[in-house]
Specification:
The chain is 46% helix and 21% strand. The protein has 170 residues and is of the alpha/beta class. It has a single domain (11-168), classed as Nucleotidyltransferase, domain 5 (2-Layer Sandwich). It has a 5-stranded mixed β-sheet, sandwiched between helices. Helix 1 crosses helix 6 (151-168) and helix 4 packs across helix 6.
Length: 170
């Protein structure tokens, strides 16, 4: 499935692009980025290749207590040689940040406090889930039932791919 990510560029997007550029500068050679789509009940995960050019859906985790989520993410970080996180930021359609953004930012802080202390960049995730669901139906002919397990990790890949694409243009 080919991801075509097109984000508008305004002040919010420019700031987020700079966060991603700063994150890349903090990576050791060969380290990967882990993309996160943070939901109330699930965490979608996607992983970059070591060259930081392609995002691949990895898995969807059922959210549990923070300590359990952090332990699972720490295992993924270790297994895949992850050097930084790209976390989807659910900004409003007008570019402002609402309560969901605050929740995601707090999750990142809590994750660091729980032992997953990696550099973090946030990436605009507006419409990522809707775009992924549409693509799954149109291109992959997946029913909504089959999508349930794959949509969060695919949304994480969409988010991560957007950040990777921005890195190539900086």
């Amino acid at each position: 499935m080919a991801w075509q990510v097109d984000h508008a560029t305004g002040p919010q997007e420019t700031r987020l692009q700079q966060e991603v550029a700063d994150l890349k500068d903090r990576l050791a050679p060969g380290q990967r980025l882990l993309g996160l789509d943070v939901g109330a009940k699930t965490l979608g995960l996607a992983i970059s290749d070591p060259a930081l050019s392609i995002a691949t859906p990895l898995e969807t985790l059922r959210r549990r207590k923070l300590a359990q989520d952090a332990a699972r993410l720490a295992a993924v970080v270790e297994e895949w040689g992850v050097g930084g996180l790209v976390i989807g930021l659910p900004v409003n359609m007008d570019g402002s940040e609402g309560p969901r953004c605050q929740s995601v930012r707090q999750f990142a802080k809590n994750l660091a406090a729980a032992g997953v202390a990696l550099p973090v960049a946030f990436w605009d995730e507006r419409l990522s889930t809707a775009a992924v669901e549409r693509q799954m139906i149109e291109e992959a002919d997946m029913s909504r039932r089959k999508q349930a397990g794959a949509v969060d990790q695919a949304a994480a890949a969409w988010i991560l791919q957007g950040a990777l694409d921005a890195l190539r243009h900086l």
